[in-house]
Design goal:
Blueprint: E1 5-11, E2 14-21, E3 25-30, H1 41-47, E4 51-56, E5 71-72, H2 73-84, E6 89-94, H3 96-107, E7 112-118, H4 130-153, H5 155-166, H6 172-184, H7 186-189, E8 196-197, E9 214-219, H8 224-236, E10 240-245, H9 252-255, H10 257-268
Parallel strand pairs: 3-4, 3-6, 5-8, 6-7, 7-9, 9-10
Antiparallel strand pairs: 1-2, 2-4
Helix pairs in contact: 2-3, 4-5, 5-6
Length: 269
Amino acid sequence: MSDEIEKFVDVPGGFLYCRTRGQGQDVVLINAGAADLRMWETTVSWLSDIARVTTFDYRDTGLSSPGTQSYSEIEDVAAVMDAAGVSSAVLLGVSDGARRALGFAHRHPERARRVVAVAGTFGAFPDPSPAEAVARKEMLEHFARRERVLAGAGIRAAAEVDIDAWAPALDARERHKMIGLQVANSYFFTLEDYLGFELDPPVKTRFSEIGTPISVLVGGHDFESTRLWAQRIVEQAPDASLTLLPEADHFPMFSAPAQFEQFLRQALR
């Protein structure tokens, strides 16, 4: 689009690719782990009519550089915002992006007006309840199956297994898109040593310390662990609300686009 601005942002040890489009309040979109900013194209197409939207590729994905030294995920977000001229924004993160958005809000509360945490994933539960322990076991079984498929049949087959588990409600077109993005970012998907770091101790133990308003969204067809993490955020954060979309999965912008748009428009108001 003619009003879209593309930049490569220098950061310690590398660079980040980012795009900014639209006018209005600033919104920063932070994507799922083994994808890149292309996952936001359908969202940006309508969101840029009411907001100035910034997206970027993580290190090791898309057009950004690989991670070559230890680096802060949070300060990478800050560098993108600085380059785009964004002093403060609504941060919308999906999956691992929700973790990064919440970590950013904890570290830089003055720059985060709201966090929209969609299908947040955080790994193992600290002090898990019985239900959380069962849900974590289900996740580990999925990861083990994905690794067996990767070793035996390669990245495309592993991506299909992964996306079909996380996102069973996608139609054929969006399923192909998410599988393709994971294959395109297979460098990240198969990293032996991930060099990024967040808060210490991690944000999953510090939801109660985040004063920024948080809008949590989770889909009824997502993993049980994702739904339990959504509950944890709402129970522990001082200012958080939960929305469940029964028909959605891990990627509600694709599996329930109309409902996702309605939710996000309300959150931005």
